[in-house]
């Protein structure tokens, strides 16, 4: 039974209870303007307790719960880019709701937060952030910490998204880049090998870094994508991919097969000479006993592009190798469904959005062929 008492200029209630260990405890909540308001709040809390709510959880802050939620539900299952987003949202929550109990946040509080947040963010970013926070809030409801979803029916009106152009090299420059990297590759400059692998397969950088030698089947001429290299957080190969569709098998061209066999030979000789046994069996474990970061690869990639006289404004980063290969394949008439599967996209819609510039050109070409074919019928 709750007790109501005056505390300074406001009222508060106290509820006695036992924790899981059987210890007698007391839950106190104040700040109510009237005695009646405090009594109603106490009665609501007692109803929640009868439905299984734990008073031990009532003081948890939104940021503490969110961080624990990310640690338990997200970190084991997502890649580094997703983890960066989750961590950035933790900072946003901490800045807007510092030391705020999750039980104290109302729908109006959350809408005020979103109104402020969307002033400097795109609608897409706001929707992604809201979706993540909503998932967290719904789990807090399942944990019986709160009993209503304060994110429900939130209004989102962020700024329009600025569409980023997909950067890729011309076929001529792409061939020059591959040729230069092939001539200058060595085990002491292993990033050249990584760049060549990206150019020939379209793998994401973290997928390239995550390759182990048992993922490379020289006999069947296949690479099995199963892992990523988490270079921003764990600094090691982890058994997960960006999405379930990222788990895939990619063909190895004869040129890449020769390149990887040379790397394996150089790497094995160095490891034997230095009595080093790689516990990860990583394809791109360097002579420094580590896998290069994306930054290291980008530096090498820029150096190559400088050497083959590609202007800085036209240069690509590591992800641009993937865009260039995809653009080349689509321009050559390879079906979008196969390109989508090769890239590990969830569906063809993602591929179509990324490369709509090429697909529009192909549609114009197909329209021309259609008109020519129809004209032939009238002759």
UniProtKB/TrEMBL annotation:
Domain Tyr recombinase: 164-368
InterPro entries named in the record: AP2-like_int_N (IPR028259), DNA_brk_join_enz (IPR011010), Integrase-like_cat_sf (IPR013762), Integrase_catalytic (IPR002104), Integrase_recombinase_N (IPR010998), Integrase_SAM-like_N (IPR004107), Tyrosine_recombinase_XerCD (IPR050090)
Any one Gene Ontology molecular-function term assigned to this protein's record: DNA binding
A Pfam family: Arm-DNA-bind_4
Keywords: DNA integration, DNA recombination, DNA-binding
One Gene Ontology biological process: DNA integration
Source domain of life: Bacteria
Protein family (similarity comment): Belongs to the 'phage' integrase family.
Name this polypeptide is given: Tyr recombinase domain-containing protein
Lineage: Bacteria, Bacillati, Bacillota, Bacilli, Lactobacillales
